[in-house]
Write a structure and sequence with these properties.
This protein is an alpha+beta fold and about 290 residues long. It contains twelve helices and eleven strands.
């Protein structure tokens, strides 16, 4: 099968924008360890506001978080008396000035960034809760692991974020069909799939639905979330474990089957039947072609 899709800059069905996380370009020098966080909390309480929680692929799938300095909207005078922050900023500056081209000159991007060493290369911090998903996902998974994060939590360049906490959006993206679409149109890295907002999310046609049908998708997704959280909170499991097909618990699998089945009916209506992954790709590709013409 040969398919020709082009990357789109907005979601083809008018769904909320998905964007790339923040890219500090800091060689990890903005990240703080637990001791440093405690030191700032104890000695410089006024600087606590610069500590943010950040997640990427690794953190989303293992249910962990990291702490990072976010000085992007600050002035040097706000924190230059805070030794631990100043040290991190100096380290970022030093590292950026060490990024040389083949002539031994500092690369122009890094030279420019070294002038404002407290700022990230790209900074994305938008209001509201967000659905976040890993940029890279294991090729053996049948579903893409994703999670809703509270306002103010950043995602890094290893994750994508949607400025929405709508379980309808999350539900459609948590189907097998969407994972098949990723497998077909995403990038490949070894045996992993690489998600792309412009090639995978923006090109994916959502079904035509009523508000009542969307509510049903929300209810089915809420049930998946409920089951998932039981394993995460009481059995100390994470999504990397739960979404490995070898480990996937039966109740979680059944909840996903129910969602897949319902969403299949929304797409196929009276023509509802069992379809293979290949048939789904052909079906969704036709929808894409039709909609992209409009």
């Amino acid at each position: 099968h040969s398919y020709h899709i082009q990357n789109l800059t907005s979601q083809i069905s008018g769904q909320p924008e998905m964007y790339f996380g923040s890219q500090p370009l800091d060689n990890n020098n903005f990240y703080l360890d637990k001791d440093e966080v405690q030191q700032i909390e104890k000695r410089y309480p006024e600087a606590v506001k610069y500590i943010k929680t950040i997640v990427g692929s690794q953190e989303i799938t293992t249910n962990t978080t990291r702490q990072i300095l976010d000085l992007n909207e600050s002035n040097v005078a706000d924190w230059d008396e805070v030794a631990v922050i100043k040290q991190h900023v100096d380290n970022v500056k030093q590292w950026r000035l060490q990024q040389l081209d083949s002539n031994g000159q500092v690369k122009s991007t890094y030279k420019k960034l070294a002038r404002t060493p407290w700022k990230y290369d790209t900074y994305n911090n938008r209001p509201g809760r967000h659905i976040m998903l890993p940029r890279q996902s294991s090729g053996s998974r049948e579903y893409i692991p994703m999670k809703i994060y509270e306002e103010g939590i950043l995602s890094n360049a290893q994750a994508y974020a949607i400025q929405s906490d709508d379980l309808y959006v999350m539900g459609i993206l948590s189907t097998k069909m969407h994972n098949d679409w990723l497998a077909t149109f995403g990038g490949k890295f070894k045996s992993d799939y690489r998600y792309s907002n412009e090639m995978v999310y923006n090109t994916f046609v959502f079904p035509a639905t009523t508000e009542q049908e969307q509510n049903e998708v929300r209810a089915l997704m809420a049930e998946i979330e409920r089951i998932k959280n039981v394993y995460i909170d009481t059995k100390n499991r994470n999504m990397r474990y739960l979404y490995n097909p070898k480990n996937m618990p039966l109740d979680l699998r059944n909840a996903h089957d129910n969602l897949d089945d319902y969403v299949a009916k929304l797409y196929l209506r009276d023509d509802y039947k069992d379809m293979t992954s290949q048939e789904w790709i052909d079906f969704l590709y036709e929808l894409y072609l039709e909609k992209n013409k409009q």
